[in-house]
Amino acid sequence: MIVRDDSYSLFYEKTVDDLDAIEAGLLEVEQAPEDCVASLVNTLFRQVHNIKGSASFYDLTEIVAISHSMETLLGMLRTKHISVDPELIAILLSAKDWLLRLLDEDSGFDTTPIMKQLTSYIDAKVDENRSRNATQGTGVIEVGLPDKESIWKVSEATIIEAQNSAKGGKFVYLFVFDLIEDIEKKGKTPQEVIGEFDTLTKLIESKLDIGLVGGLTDDAENTSIPLYLLCATIMDPIIVREILGVSDNNVIVIQEEYISYPDEQVVVVTPENSPVYQMLEKEARNRQVTLTVPFGHLSDLERRLTLQDSWEDASFLVRGILVAPTVESITAEFVLLLSRLAETQGKRFDYDVTLESSDPLLFFLLVFKHELFNIVENAVLHGIEPPQDRIRCGKSMAGSIIVNADVTSREILFSVFDNGRGISKESMTVHAERFNQNGQAVADLPKEKLIDLIIKSELFSLGAFAQKLKAYNGRIQVNSHEQGVTFTVHIPL
Amino acid sequence: MSSEVIVINEDIVSSTVQNLHKEVSDFIADGVTGITFDMGNVDIIDSTGIGFIIKVQNTLKRNGGVLSLCNVNSDIVRMFKVMRLDQHISIED
């Protein structure tokens, strides 16, 4: 059930802003000198990728389909398999207008014209690349069964994103199941199989081929209904067969190595003068890879890095710890945490996690992930009431949790809103009393002062978090109101 | 062009499909072209059940009609979306 509530309004507003930014970005790309195109395209790719992800959360299938094709084109641009031309920019701008229209008018109108335009352009460029230079590739991976027409054309950039996502890995497989032979006759249901794959791998594409299924009066025997799943995972072919219980007939290896962007940047979160950095810098120079050091003092993360003997080990370590996590992968971790809590806590709630993709935010998330997870966890454990309690006090059965992070020109704002029971006056008083050193009667304190004392207390483990934030001049704001609680963390830039 | 709502009171699995097949076929033989399955009581659809739903949609489509599903539980909606079946069969909120 899709709830178009506060979180949807946030999604709507953010997407409208993103579409404005995409329009400006596309116009900029058209005019930009060649050496600036890559970073502009990276930004555009991520913005479109985010829209696709959020739209998928709200079941906006037309928006997902259009943004997927835009992502494919931007992916081909990103991997330098196509170059900027006025026709490409015009198609992408037109697609952006369609997204805006879909957002404003909701679904229900025919998107065939723009989908045809996007698909034709992608197909033409793939053919062009193929005939120009067969060895260079097309920027698009055609996924299909041997000697058969391809099932999907997926941009290399989409594969790269999937490989580097939280559940992904270097192996990309096409799994092929016949619903009857491979699933029903093995005592499973499609729901179980899809759930298993969704949990253990990064699902890139999926499709049920209904071409061979007839009607009610047709011969019921020998009907084949193939289910195709394209997934990225860290599991090698042997493990994948073991863990997922698939046979050789069910799996085709599409990719066995990480694909890199031609202009790959390795983001190193470590002091510039550290041995690790110096070694990586030397190797990066040899390999013509750009190293980026966004922040200067990350002692707790640096302690996790040790000098490695080789680039392979070190880059693996850096990739594993610091590069692979992206704002998107951390968003996925928040979603995973919330979905697990929804399963285990006997509570019902909708949730939305929207984190703006930016380097300062990534840094903040990496440093404070544990504490931020705690806040989200507490919003579920202590905020959202069990369904029966909610009904009793006249609320909807399902609560709502909204996790949001924005980066303004001045600060990072991370907020967690829950529409649960709020922090009661009794609870505030008890915790505030423990930290009230002035001897003033706690009950007489203004609400702001009470909340200040609560932040310093151990309630929700906020004390240690507030202390740690001080090193970054950050602060926590707690707003408990009738509609629930909003925790906001401010970190000045 | 007439339409019917069929409330399905059991899971759509191999053991129940035969009865549903007959019920739906009878409606179609009577000239019904639009069918809505009320899925409020359906928790599980197995592979045979999915095959059956596709066959109903294909039959109705040939007759110029359409199959819709309503009151579908979120796990089943998710499965239909992963299989891209939502592009062929209308799922009402």
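The first helix of chain B runs from residue 14 to 29.
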